[in-house]
Input
Amino acid sequence: MRYELDLFGVLVPSLVLWSVIAFALARIISKLIARAGLYRGIWHPALFDFALYVCLVASLVFVCTEFFS
Amino acid sequence: MNGLSFWDRHAALIFALKTFAAAMLAFYLALLLDMPRPYWAMTSVYVTSNVLTGATSSKAVYRILGTLIGAAGAIVLIPNLVDAPELLSLAITLWISAFLYIALLDGTPRSYAFMLSGYTIALVGLPVLSTPELTFDVAVSRVQEITLGIICASAVAMLVLPRSVASAVAGQADAWLANASQLCAHVLTGDGSGPERDDQRMRLAAAASAIDELCSHLNYDAATSASIVRGLRRLRRHMLALLPMFASIEDRMVALASRGGLPANLGTICARMARWLAEGGRDHEEADSMRVALAEIQPALDVEAGWTEIMAASFIIQLRNLVDIIQDCQALRRAIANDRDPEELALAFTLDASGHAAAHRDRGVALWSAAAVTLSLLACFAFWIGTGWTDGTAAVLFSAILGAFMASTDEPLPAFRSLYKIVVVVVALNGIYIFGILPRVTAFEMLIVALMPMFLLFGWMAARPATASLGALLANFISVQLALQPFYTADFAAFANSSVALMLGVGVTGVICGIVRFLGTGWIARRLLLSNRATLAAVAARKSSQDRVAVASLMQHRLALLAQRVAAVPADVRSDAANLRLLRAALSIIDVRQASLGLSLPARAAIELLLARLAAIFAIPSDGQLPRDLLEQLDSTIPFTLQEPASEVRNQALISLAGIRSGLFPEAPAYQPMPSEPREIAA
Output
């Protein structure tokens, strides 16, 4: 895996890319959960969203290092 | 023309032009004086400028004070701790959070000085971490640049078409009095209850609190004479008495109507007064003849006096006070318009002339908000230390600024979402300017032309109430992010670093504040309601001062705060809060205690016993109903007072007891005299 991306001559850690992708995924998932009405059963929605996001970033990084390195 | 002059109708545009001129003047002078960061002078202009001249000057003073304190903190902390980043992070975080907590507790425009003391340490200290020996120079130049910006902003505000705070306060007070008279006319014609009137009461309280905030700038209004300031303060004090009075009048009318209807002579005078108020309350002769009529129908309270007589007597006293207050307000308004000293006026209503206004402060909420910001700062610092990213300190800086902004909102998440859009807009605009427009700019005049459209738009937005905070935020952020320098330097790495740091700092702060402060508006509203009970208990137990003005201003400030959160207030307590029941009970407690000093010992003992009981009940926080036997105790205290020889003091005590009863038990059936039992005890 490449650890840095070249963005207009600036080297950016690939973590930035994963965190942006994970953010988009987390938005989609939380929209789906909201549509299904599951947030009523969740005590602390903001904390849940944040945890979901952390899980997504972690799994993206893990999958990437496992399969594309 | 609709009554406004040309300058008033275009106030927003004039403000935008004025502020832009001041900003460019500050920037030009800073360039001329070879200051290292000229854009700080420009930013200062946008931060301090307000549509009202007095508000600009007061913010200027607070900004200089805050910058001095923060810069001093940076000089002390940075060189000493620069080799231990963990310790330095902790120290800066604690400094910022402590000042933020103080600022939240203060709650007046003065809080800006504390807030700025907090984050100036980050503004000055963090960029010089690699060269700590320069801390002093940077601190001094920041103070110089800020002072230059502030001088430009104040000078332009005062010289070019100034708008005084006093005229704004007077205008708002007029509008308030007109609305209040209208509400009172509704009350007097028997149309004073219902959710719509409750909303009206809450809006009046909120408007009064907005006037209070404006009043705190009055001392900085250079062009306003001292007698106008005194007159406005006196007017505001009279306004404090009006809202609870409307609610008492309403209660008395309902009580009298349920006991066989309003007596005919009272009914006619109510109708007269409603008409008088609807016409603006300016007719002196009518007011005098109403006073005479009220004195004629005032019933004498003898031993046999029943509930109806007591209620009617207190009703008539309230009506007389109402006439007095409305007339005083008109007199004060004329005195303010003619710049006369209010001390020379003979005011009819001077009951509360001494006494200090108080405002509601919630230590718990302030601590909670400051703690959320502390956590966000620590997270940003941890990210900086963990990644070794040099520009990570800028994220800390924006976290501190954003945290201070968000700490004063109830629900951090919605505020954060709208803020994030602003940040993205700022980054985009900044990119367009740095890479698209500024490379073609070769002279200062061209720079002015290039910046003008954007800053005029933001200044115009900042001057309009609907978009005020949005425009101010955009103008401030963009002038910081542009970071205009004497020479053009386009550097994509610097742009990317500062933009990512901005987005990261805002993001981390928003997410952490959203998670930590999950108890939102509802929690704050509940605490507001409970704190009124605590105040009542303190007054009844004589633990707080027996100052009518303090209690009235405190509880009406709470009502204003509740009005901002009206959606989170449960419907069943909304009407009680809007009618200021606890405030009226507390004022009656103060009165009855004062009056009881002139009564005989048994009556005094009974009243003290009742007050002790009230204190015990209200000291326990709960939303539940009041115990039924409290009403019985209250009813058994009234005969003790009725036994007393007729005097002014006795009537006062009696009416105050009735005030407590109707304040706390509005739904209870009328009081029934119990003639035999208390006489035995008294004998």
Observations:
- The first helix of chain A runs from residue 14 to 36.
- Chain A has a mean pLDDT of 83.
- Helices of chain A lie at 14-36, 45-67.
